[in-house]
Amino acid sequence: LEPNKINVAGHLTIGGVDATELAHQYGTPLIAYDVAAIRQQFRRFNKVFEENQVEYEVSYASKAFATVGMFQVVAQEKGHIDVVSGGELYTAIKAGFPMDKISFHGNNKSRAELEMAVEHQIGVVIVDNFHEIELLSEILEQKKQTMNVMIRITPGISAHTHKYDQTGQEDSKFGFDIQSGQAEEALKQILTNPRMTMIGIHTHIGSQIFEVEGFVMAANKLVDLAADWHDKFDLDTQVLNVGGGFGIRYTKEDDPIAPEKFVDAIIKAVQKRVGQRDLKMPAIWIEPGRSIVGPAGYSLYTIGSRKDVPGLLPYVTVDGGMGDNIRPALYQADYEAVLANRASDKNEETVRIAGKYCESGDILIQKQALPKSQPGDTLAILATGAYGYSMASNYNRNPRPAVVFVENGQSKLVVKRESYEDLVRLDQDFI
Ligand code: LLP
């Protein structure tokens, strides 16, 4: 935690606002985003591309956090959005996001979802499988429309990360295999379809990655494929999309390289290979999700009960848990917390931070140094901006938290807290 995030009262601040005030004003659990930190990530990525004079698109992987307010920030930053469902696309429509700056991913897009994409004339559909090419072709024919497409390939690269977060290895449910000729067959189908325009090749190797090697390998694969297809089909591939996955710091143990280092390595790799293969330099697209919103998010909770277990770390329990952040339970993900109302108190004990859900696995942090806390204190878990709210559930019929955006000392509610009424809104009487 940077010292400049603690105010004279010794409280944590977020976007220039005292975190305890946010907790008081909006209630807890609360997800608060430092909007300047979101903008900064976009600008860091943009800068690397611009310094290297490469055409690019930073396509925010909205699965990390997809809400109307977030999409409006992306629009302000001139970003692009990657959606993976009709729901994410609908959110973008509601946000007034420019449709030509949307790409659509997914390994089983439904007919209805593809129709929606075509009706709204989104920028590009990233096709994943033969069934999808057939569906899309039927829809385009029916609606007498055209669509840009990219082909997603499986690069055969295993990223060093949790196995649920690996997507690039050969045995993956995503994309067309290159070796067996699937990717080339997909290309032929697209090239012979007058309603589809082939604009690029996509690959994504995984998430929360800490090394550049995998990205360099992926970049080389993409260039080689573009070069092979140029030789064979006289095709100029306009875009190489290397996906997302840039790792972020969750705890002191994490030592990720700067996001711009990933991008710089990717650009250099593409430039070098393009030179070797005598290709025209394509545009490079990236799809960061976690690295855009993760570090900018804070989960604020109110501390309640405590249980001391002889010889073991005490449980300090908060008013949220696996319903607003499933990542510790699902991926054994680590986080760090601070006591927001005594952020510089060094008189610490070591505790476990437990959630309120009826599961023993609902432990948000297994080992946390914390000033001795009392019921009513505000706990802030850091770097929860990605895959926290977006994976939230109503388990135990707990309402999902509110979300606020904070910038320049001002806070704005961007997602209301769910009410009990919301929880039963879709329920129907049986008798
Ligand atoms: N592009 C594609 C095609 C993806 O599948 C993903 C993430 C991304 C981009 C963005 O990756 P990022 O930059 O956020 O790492 N729920 C898991 C992460 C799942 C990632 C799925 N795909 C977690 O909480 O760790």
From TrEMBL:
State the needed cofactors, names only: pyridoxal 5'-phosphate
* Identification of the protein by name: Diaminopimelate decarboxylase
Positions of substrate binding: R290, R327, Y331, E359, Y387
**Entries under InterPro entries matching the protein:** Ala_racemase/Decarboxylase_C, DAP_deCOOHase_LysA, De-COase2_C, De-COase2_N, Orn/DAP/Arg_de-COase, PLP-binding_barrel
Per the record, what are the reactions this protein catalyses? meso-2,6-diaminopimelate + H(+) = L-lysine + CO2
Origin organism is Pediococcus damnosus
Pathway connected to this protein: Amino-acid biosynthesis; L-lysine biosynthesis via DAP pathway; L-lysine from DL-2,6-diaminopimelate: step 1/1
Q: Which CDD domains match?
A: PLPDE_III_DapDC
Explain the purpose of this protein: Specifically catalyzes the decarboxylation of meso-diaminopimelate (meso-DAP) to L-lysine.
**What's a Gene Ontology MF term here?**
diaminopimelate decarboxylase activity
Q: What binding partners and quaternary form does the record give?
A: Homodimer.
Report domain Orn/DAP/Arg decarboxylase 2 C-terminal positions.
295-385
* EC code: 4.1.1.20
| Orn/DAP/Arg decarboxylase 2 N-terminal domain location | 36-293
Binding sites annotated in the UniProt record for pyridoxal 5'-phosphate: G245, E287, P288, G289, R290, Y387
Recorded family membership: Belongs to the Orn/Lys/Arg decarboxylase class-II family. LysA subfamily.
Taxonomic superkingdom: Bacteria
Where N6-(pyridoxal phosphate)lysine occurs, the residues are K63
